[in-house]
Amino acid sequence: LAQGVDLGRLRLSISSSGEIETRLQPIDWAAVFPTWSEAIELSPLLTPGGLGEHKWVDRAHVAAAEAAGGALAVPLLVDNDDEALEGSRGNLFALFGSDLCTPPLDGRILPGVTRHRLLEAARAAELVVVERSIGLNELKEADEVFLTGSVRGIEPVRAIAGSQLPRGVMADRLGPELQRVWAIATTGSTASGSDPARA
After folding, report:
1. Would residue 140 show up in a list of annotated catalytic residues for this protein?
2. How far, in Å, CA of 140 to CA of 80, rounded?
3. pTM for the full predicted model
4. Catalytic member of 9, 55, 116, 167
5. Each residue of 110-154: pLDDT tens digit?
6. What's the CA gap between 161 and 181, in Å, rounded?
7. Is residue 199 a contact partner of residue 179, using CB atoms and an 8 Å limit?
8. Do 175 and 154 meet the contact criterion of CB atoms below 8 Å apart?
9. Distance CA 79, CA 76 (A)
């Protein structure tokens, strides 16, 4: 199925009757580990209880907001109490001083594979990692915000609902380390400069 596709996303959808649908979507190399010039804006989207810990085919609520916002405007799922949960296409991270914070796995967010790998990389780099609730207003005051996902890796955030955010250094610092971890996970190689997406 993936023959001839240099970089792509393979999605398996399983219905309640057990039927499996396979879809392959090519991915532009420019989307992987985007730079600050492609940084996104997060737009709060009220999603009571979040989307849960599994990926569902029915994402109409989120898909409509994504279509309305455009490529660089990504919905930020927010619970009833204005607690920021995750982006519609990635897990949420925020830097407050020296603390790298991310919402906990409490059943409301997807336990992303890239989230897990970035936490491992951050702890290996002896960074202070805190899994805790993050309010929307607090998030707007963060020193740096980014999303993590299996397609884009680390995606910097430049604004939240019109509130501008500073360009931080943590995404740039952890990006190469995450790429190295990806390379080991996919090829078993620790060779520097290898592109995990091509593995």
Report:
1. no
2. 17
3. 0.81
4. 55
5. 999 999 999 999 999 999 999 999 999 999 999 999 999 988 899
6. 33
7. no
8. yes
9. 10
